[in-house]
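Suppose a colleague, Dr. K., hands you the sequence of a protein chain of 162 amino acids and asks what its three-dimensional shape might be. Before reaching for any lab equipment, you can write down a predicted structure in token form. Begin with the sequence itself:
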Amino acid sequence: MKMVTKPSLPVLKSCNKASNLKAAVESYNHALNTKPEYSEVYNNIGNALKDKGELEATIGYQKQALKIKPDYANAHYNMGNALKDKGQLEAAIGYYKQAVKILPNYFEAYSNMGVALKDNGLLEAAIDCYQRILKITPNYAEAYHNMSIALSEKGDFENGEL
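The predicted structure, expressed as tokens, is then:
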């Protein structure tokens, strides 16, 4: 008798990272058949589909993850990323704000929120995000780079050359 094992979440994530997205999505769906309230799986399916450029499907899976677990910071962050990719900057910013409300040191959410704010013309708010990142992670080079761009776009060339 052959024993069938169900893949664990780390195995599923490795499928996703290995760019075998079809297999990853199939495995995630199998996991959902076993445990439909598993919000992390909805989040991961959404990310796998985002990698394929399927933003509408991504948003649907992130909504489901948030329906199950409304305080799931990573799902808010990933929803923000999908909306940002669709050009829905204000909606994306709202999800990033929720992610950092849940996890105040979520510097990746501050980083992407800063980019969305900058792209939306809200330079002061973007600069504030980058300053918050540097309080959390002082050596985060991307924050210095993005803050320099925002300061330069604001016309603050003296401080824009960090």
